Amino acid sequence: YKPIYNHDTGNKDPPELIEPNKVMVFEGLHPIYDEKARSQLDLAIYIDIVNDVKFAWKVQRDVAERGWTEEQVREDIEKRLPDFSQYVDPQKANADVVLRYEPSDQGLPYLKVKLIQKKDGKFPKITLKKDLELTGSKPGATLKMYDDDWFGNAVTVVEMDGEIDMDNMEEQLKEIESNMEGLPSKKDGELTEAMVGLKSSPGSQNGTGLLQTVIAMKVREIYEKITGKEA
Q1: 122: left (phi over 0), alpha (psi -120 to 50) or beta
Q2: CA 106 to CA 104: how far, in whole Å?
Q3: How distant is the alpha carbon of residue 201 from its chain centre?
Q4: Which residues lie across from 103 on neighbouring strands?
């Protein structure tokens, strides 16, 4: 049985029975902490949220939904920080791909979202043909790609800072999609179509929705390669 933590209530729900299957997804705080367990995975994904963003998001949720004060939120984060630093945060060094959230260069609440891909890793990387700058509504968005070092690993980073113009969402998404290489689309405009369909969802205007959708398409690509079946 798997224990279930309810992020809405902050309490545990009844456990769920886990049964064998050909494809399994492990998620939680420690899915790639253990080396033996990690070695059995076909792909390891880590969500890396820097402290400033984490605090802003937790304040927004806990103050509004749980009636906490900002000071209570800060104390709760600081109480968990030693365990997080020892057991959770180090996992990002071993992930095949990392989705990292930082404050935008224009400051919060805008975000800079990075897709950090290990070179020659298990995640079939995407690249950009060129850097992009999208204008329209404030703050606008920039997309760029560069090589970097990630805990001793050579990586390729695709970064989106800011937000697209939601009044011209489809047009700007088409420009972004046509500038991507290595995107495993089933048809022309698949990424744009998926994003437009999720227009009302949180994060659809920034790198959250865009790069999560890219990862989903890559997971599908890996699934089809492993199973020989079309998803």
Answers
A1: alpha
A2: 5
A3: 15
A4: 111
Q: How far apart are the first and last CA of the chain?
A: 28
162's torsion region: left (phi>0), alpha (psi -120 to 50) or beta? left
Say how far apart CA 205 and CA 43 lie, in whole Å. 27
SS3 (DSSP) at 184: coil
- The number of residues in the chain equals 231
- Tens of pLDDT along the chain (231 residues)? 888 988 888 889 999 998 888 788 888 899 999 999 899 999 999 999 999 998 898 888 888 888 888 889 889 889 999 999 999 999 999 999 999 999 999 999 999 999 999 998 899 999 999 999 999 888 999 999 999 999 999 999 999 999 999 999 999 999 999 999 999 999 999 999 999 999 999 999 999 999 999 999 999 999 999 888 888
Q: Tell me which DSSP letter residue 137 carries.
A: S
CA distance 16 to 159: 37
Interhelix angle 190-197/207-227, rounded to 10 degrees, is 120
Q: Give the C-alpha separation, 57 to 107, whole Å.
A: 14
Give phi and psi for 37, each to the nearest 5: -65, -40
User: Strand 12-16 and strand 132-134: pairing?
Assistant: unpaired
Q: Cis bond leading into 109, ω under 30°?
A: yes
* Token pair of 121 as six digits: 């890793």
